[in-house]
């Protein structure tokens, strides 16, 4: 079996989709035995960009705008023209190219149908791509039952398969909590990520706890200016305790996550929520929301509030910072929860999906 997989999300700063694609390709190498007789051909919608640290075999660069436009508009040329004969093609980022073989499209969330994305043209392109794929008989892969149900409701899709991503499993450790309490939030400063809610909540938290610090990690997003303005409006003594790191390398981010007292993930909507499980895998307690698939992914291993409820978010953080026993409990159950999502299961699940389409 030969599968063509879109590796475009590996280019540039890694978002959740990039984490999924990287983990998927690496898990094929690490966990699928040679006797499975499969081959992966990756393609990217970029002629110039290189995939950092790529070990993913045959790689075919394509012109980004040109290929995507003609695929969406004219339904051709077929992907086989570029990658050769294949048995399955997997579009990992809301777009699957035309092909004479079975097609799989990964739809990671439906945030483009809400007011979360400011780029309306991109929203329309995503919607069109998913609709075309469903109407032409492509199999839809998604990363949570919550999103699967949304796809069925919105697009009437019949063949929707859920294969969860994994998280890197850490050696078993007992969490060491820092003397100076630190809240960490990870993600691009997009509207739906709830960073503005967190900064507003932090003002209440900081009044109660004179030592607590807030660290924001991740690239600039569509509400970056709003986040900056919200920080500037804080009183000086509280503003000085807010630290923006921007994009950092994976090793640095993991260190910050390991050292934090709590991870706060105040997102209004997630199709999965990688930072939640990544923090849990390190024993870092999590406060998150009931937005999208977050309850499904976090289970009972995190404290949850309604998205956008700033007062509830502040109260929950204050209570957890004051309760060391609950911190320790969440640390232990979080590690157990994270172990339920592993890349071996992802690799086997996706390979089973591909095989079922032959």
Helix amount:
40-55%
Q: Using DSSP, what is the number of strands?
A: 13
**CA-to-CA gap between the ends?**
8 Å
Strand order, largest beta sheet:
3-2-1-4-5-6-7
CATH-assigned homologous superfamily of the largest domain: Glycogen Phosphorylase B
- Calculate the mean pLDDT score and round it: 90
CATH topology of the largest domain: Rossmann fold
Structural class: alpha/beta
CATH class of the largest domain: Alpha Beta
Largest sheet: 7 strands, parallel
CATH-level-2 architecture of the largest domain: 3-Layer(aba) Sandwich
Please report which band the strand proportion falls in: under 5%, 5-15%, 15-25%, 25-35%, 35-45% or over 45%.
15-25%
Instruction: Tell me the domain tally.
Output: 2
Calculate Rg over CA atoms: 21 Å
| Low-pLDDT stretches | 49-57
Q: Tally the helices: what do you get? A: 14
């Amino acid at each position: 079996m030969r599968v063509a997989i879109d590796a475009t999300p590996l280019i540039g700063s890694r978002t959740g989709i990039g984490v999924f694609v990287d983990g998927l390709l690496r898990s094929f190498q690490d966990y699928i035995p040679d006797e499975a007789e499969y081959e992966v051909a990756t393609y990217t919608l970029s002629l110039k960009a290189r995939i950092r640290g790529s070990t993913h075999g045959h790689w075919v660069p394509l012109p980004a705008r040109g290929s995507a436009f003609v695929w969406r508009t004219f339904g051709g040329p077929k992907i086989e023209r570029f990658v050769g004969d294949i048995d399955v093609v997997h579009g990992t980022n809301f777009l699957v190219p035309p092909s004479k073989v079975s097609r799989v499209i990964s739809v990671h969330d439906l945030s483009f149908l809400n007011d979360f994305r400011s780029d309306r043209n991109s929203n329309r392109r995503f919607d069109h791509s998913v609709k075309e794929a469903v109407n032409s008989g492509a199999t839809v892969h998604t990363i949570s039952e919550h999103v699967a149900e949304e796809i069925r409701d919105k697009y009437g899709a019949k063949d929707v398969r859920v294969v969860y991503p994994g998280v890197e499993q850490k050696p078993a450790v007992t969490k060491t909590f820092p003397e100076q309490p630190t809240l960490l939030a990870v993600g691009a400063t997009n509207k739906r990520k709830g960073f503005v809610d967190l900064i507003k909540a932090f003002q209440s938290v900081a009044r109660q706890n004179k030592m607590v610090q807030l660290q924001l990690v991740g690239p600039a997003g569509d509400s970056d200016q709003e986040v900056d303005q919200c920080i500037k409006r804080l009183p000086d003594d509280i503003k000085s305790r807010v630290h923006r790191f921007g994009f950092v390398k994976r090793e640095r981010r993991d260190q910050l996550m390991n050292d934090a007292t709590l991870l706060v993930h105040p997102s209004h909507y997630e199709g999965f929520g990688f930072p939640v499980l990544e923090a849990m895998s390190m024993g870092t307690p999590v406060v998150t929301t009931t937005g999208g698939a977050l309850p499904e992914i976090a289970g009972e291993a995190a404290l949850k509030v309604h998205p956008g409820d700033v007062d509830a978010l502040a109260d929950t953080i204050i209570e957890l910072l004051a309760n060391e026993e609950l911190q320790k409990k969440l640390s232990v159950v979080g590690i157990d929860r994270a172990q339920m999502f592993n890349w071996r299961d992802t690799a086997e699940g996706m390979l089973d999906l591909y095989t079922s389409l032959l």
